[in-house]
Structures are given as structure tokens and as C-alpha cells.
Design goal:
six-stranded mixed sheet, 20% strand, globular, 9 strands, alpha/beta
Length: 298
């Protein structure tokens, strides 16, 4: 594989590291982590589709775990998903550092979705309803807190809604940090659909209920308050590492807005998504990672 890939990359600097972790997808083989460090190389000298074709051909019985291309991460991830399918973006990457050192040139922000609730399990829209964690959610948050306690985190911000607040306080107990609550991190308001399931919404308003004015907060408003918060945190805490506990819709809509070319998916309960901003550009270093929950299944 190296001979073929080295032909495509200049300068030649390919590192391959086998991982001991097991894929959570349908392919139950060892992962492969390929790091392509391409500092100083322009896009015109990189044949990304051809690189990924060779990766897929060479390791067609294994998962391509993650591919990182300096300064061109999002483009390479796009082709990775396109050629290898969504399973190629295994979020439980062992290679990602959750103990970040302080970097004075950028802010590191970890977006965390709260633990599970009974309404999550029932498929009910939560929105601004103040639903607490269920026991599974508490257990998830404790596992997450155990994962984060050794990291060099400087601050915790959280939505004030109970499910996020409980998650943040468990993390605070483990890390020794105080929690700062901010209303801009609350979940998208669901208006009249809060507390209902999809079947109940169809029964009440029909299959076109999304086109009915039910008082649901506009996506643009969710993105605006989320972006305003993140930009403020970036300016206030440059060079620091910040944990932000919020909700699925707020994280998803703002992630899509800030990292538009990333193949975004659903954000699981207590998942970690790490964003960094440097040179006025947001990038994603870790996406929807729930590796800490694997310990609860052993």
C-alpha cells in the first residue's frame, strides 16, 4: 500500500497505525488509522479520490478508520465517505487526543449532548421541556465524566435545562470545574409538538405537520444564538479548552452551519464533538464520539 500511496503524495510522509479497537458497525474487523501529513502541499498535487480508492482496495476487508489531511481535512473526509460509505467515519477514534494541551493560538471547544431521557427512548420531542435524565442517562454522563476528568479542560458551559444541567454537573464533579449556564445553549423550542411522538403528530396534524405553523423555533434562530455563543467563547477563551453541554438539535444545526462541508450525522447522547477555530475558520477534530460508553457494554 505504501508504494502505491507514496506515488500519489509528495512529500512522502505516510504513517499507518493498526488499532486494537473493534468497529461498532456491521464489519467486525480491526480498524486501520491512516494519517497523511501533507504540510506545504497544494491541492493540485493530491489525487484524493485515487488515494482513497487504493486505501479501499488494499484494505477492503477492514474499516478505514480515519483519514486526516493537514489543512484539507474536510475534503478528504468527504471523499472517504463517498468511496467507503458512512461506516468509514468511525467516530470512536482511538487516535484523537481528549487531553488537549493548551494552545495559545486557538480555542478548543468540545460540544457534548446531554445523557438520555425517558422521552428520548419514547421518541418524544423534548424542545424546551425540562425533562431530567433517566437512569441510563445518569450512567452515560458518569462514564463521560470519567473520560474527561484527566483532560486539561478550563471551563464548562451548559444549557440550563435539567437534562443538560445534570450532565454538566456530573462532569464538573469529576473535573473540579464550575458550570456556567447560558440560555443560548437551550434546545430548539418545539412549540406545540413538545411531548408528542411522530405518530401522535401525524394523527393530530397529518403527514404534512412540518408545514403547519406550530410555533417551532426557526432553524436560523437556533443557528444564530448558537453561533453567537461559540464566537463569544472563542474570543473570551483563546488558548483554552472549553466543554459545552447542550442538545441534539442545537448542536446539529450549528455544526452544519459552522462546518458546512463535513458529512454530519446524528449526535448521540453524551457524544463528544470537538471544534477548533484558527485563522477565522472552524474545523472538526472529533465527531459524535461515544467511545466511553463501550466500557458499559463489557
Amino acid at each position: 500500500m505504501h508504494d502505491r500511496i507514496n506515488h500519489l503524495f509528495r512529500p512522502r510522509n505516510i504513517i499507518q497505525e493498526p488499532s486494537k479497537s473493534v468497529c461498532r458497525g456491521h464489519i467486525n474487523h480491526s480498524d486501520v488509522f491512516v494519517s497523511c501529513r501533507m504540510a506545504g502541499v497544494s491541492d493540485r498535487r493530491i489525487n484524493i479520490p485515487l488515494v482513497l480508492c487504493w486505501l479501499r482496495i488494499t484494505h477492503k476487508k477492514e474499516q478505514i478508520h480515519n483519514v486526516i489531511l493537514a489543512k484539507r481535512t474536510c475534503i478528504l473526509r468527504y471523499w472517504l465517505v463517498r468511496f467507503c460509505g458512512p461506516d468509514a467515519m468511525n467516530t470512536n477514534a482511538r487516535s484523537v487526543n481528549l487531553n488537549p494541551e493548551r494552545n495559545h493560538s486557538m480555542a478548543t471547544i468540545a460540544l457534548i449532548r446531554h445523557g438520555s431521557t425517558s422521552w428520548n427512548k419514547e421518541g418524544r420531542a423534548q424542545g424546551s421541556s425540562n425533562i431530567p435524565l433517566d437512569q441510563d442517562g445518569i450512567n452515560q454522563a458518569r462514564l463521560l465524566a470519567g473520560r474527561l476528568k484527566s483532560g486539561q479542560w478550563n471551563h464548562i458551559y451548559s444549557s440550563g435545562l435539567e437534562r443538560a444541567k445534570q450532565t454538566a454537573l456530573l462532569i464538573a464533579d469529576a473535573t473540579g470545574l464550575n458550570v456556567h449556564f447560558d440560555d443560548r445553549l437551550k434546545e430548539r423550542s418545539g412549540g406545540q409538538i413538545e411531548g408528542t411522538t411522530e405518530a401522535e403528530r401525524i394523527e393530530k396534524w397529518g403527514t404534512g405537520w412540518r408545514d403547519v405553523d406550530l410555533g417551532i423555533e426557526a432553524i436560523e434562530e437556533v443557528q444564530k444564538r448558537g453561533k453567537d455563543f461559540l464566537e463569544e467563547i472563542y474570543l473570551r477563551h483563546q488558548g483554552e479548552n472549553v466543554l459545552v453541554v447542550s442538545h441534539g438539535a442545537l448542536i446539529q444545526f450549528n455544526f452544519i452551519h459552522l462546518v458546512a462541508d463535513f458529512p454530519s450525522t446524528h449526535f448521540d447522547n453524551t457524544s463528544i464533538t470537538i471544534l477548533k477555530k484558527q485563522d477565522n475558520r472552524w474545523t472538526c477534530e472529533l465527531h459524535n464520539c461515544t467511545k466511553h460508553l463501550e466500557r458499559d457494554n463489557k
